[in-house]
Amino acid sequence: KEKLVEKAKEILDANFQEGGFTIPCKGLYPFQWKWDSGFIAIGLAYYNVKNAKAEIETLLNAQWENGFIPHIVFHNESDTYFPGADFHLSKLHPLASKEYRSTGMTQPPVTGFVLQEMLKIADDKKDMLGFIKSQIDKVYDNHKYFYSNRDINNEGLVYIYHNWESGTDNSPIWDDIWKTMNPPEYSFERRDTTHVDASQRPSKREYDHYLHIIEIAKANNYDDVKIAELSPFLVQDPLFNAMLIKSNTALIELYEKIGNNADKVAQLKSWQEKSIKGFNAKLYDEELGAYVHYDLRNNKPIRFVSSSSFSPLYAGIPDKERAAKLVKTMMDKFGGEDKYLCASFDPESDRFNPKKYWRGPVWINLNWMLYYGLKDYGYAEISERVKQDSIALIENDGFYEYFDSRKEIRKTETGGYGGNNFSWSAALLIDLLH
Ligand code: DGY
């Protein structure tokens, strides 16, 4: 156990950059990513408070004037990733950061609950609360951005306009949306498949779709109103919205600790009430016994079960009865003794692929949320299994980006896929083993 933690720290230290941020993985992801940054800060908070704070600060420094926080910040130069800063041209947006280059899309809003985790972990609470006080308004402004610009039906649910915003990049959830599009065949040079076997990454045709949505956004200077009107991809994602809700809760509690912010607390509570209500009313699928995505562009629910379906447990969204149904769905489909919890996509679906990125493999960050969520709802045994499965995967296979959920394949091959020495796998292991 101690050796694993030592190895995890070595990985984080090796991935830490001079500019004060941590890359998710050498070669494959050579810049700062928004949600990676949050999970990484949690691991760092255990042994290097200075770097943990820097991680958050460097991300928030790149915030746009409208509160938007980009999914990648290009602090540094690197030619090992595509699409880089030159492709995204975030500065087309009039309120984009003048100082930093970034993408014009975002990622799940984890920063609020990350600040709260950092406070829980800190030995010197006063010092950490002082740091939080210096950063928290930026996170509040980010939530304000979401509620002001991305809740177009005023139902407490914000949209994402790109699969890269979801974090679950190539999930089978998006397959039917791709069928509604017919993008040109772009010519570009992939870099990811020079680092990782192509069978574990999205296809070229999928990348055409990804780039096409960005081209539409760029042609409209990343204007939110235009994007809501024109993007072929417009989705209310349960994982994304659950993270926003979890972070709302965190901001409320942190502002109450800090004091003197009654207006912001009241505003957060009002967003929160509407969000939880809207979430339960719109994103729950009775028949599947799970939360699902909603396709706003084509006006229909996307009826598939994925690990995102269970993430509302981490945010306290379902009542006890609904939580019990979620847990049953999870255990029936994903929880067999021959499997590690929790595959990222329904193992019973013909779209399941246990090796391909978000089409089936287990991811440590989703497991981490499930572990805490299940624990909060009183599922001690299952939550412990999620924790032990996560540790076993890393112990047996290494600090990979994602893992095969099938136990038996390890008789003949390794089950770790994607990038190795992956920062959030290391960071969250430190937390799980604490
Ligand atoms: C990638 O390039 O696959 C990244 O995950 C996008 O954020």
From TrEMBL:
Instruction: Name any one GO molecular function.
Output: Glc3Man9GlcNAc2 oligosaccharide glucosidase activity
Q: Which Pfam families match?
A: MGH1-like_GH
Which residues belong to any copy of the Mannosylglycerate hydrolase MGH1-like glycoside hydrolase domain? 29-425
In terms of superkingdom, the source organism counts as Bacteria
Q: Which GO terms describe its biological process?
A: oligosaccharide metabolic process; protein N-linked glycosylation
**Protein name per the record:** Trehalase
Give the organism the record lists.
Answer: Maribacter vaceletii
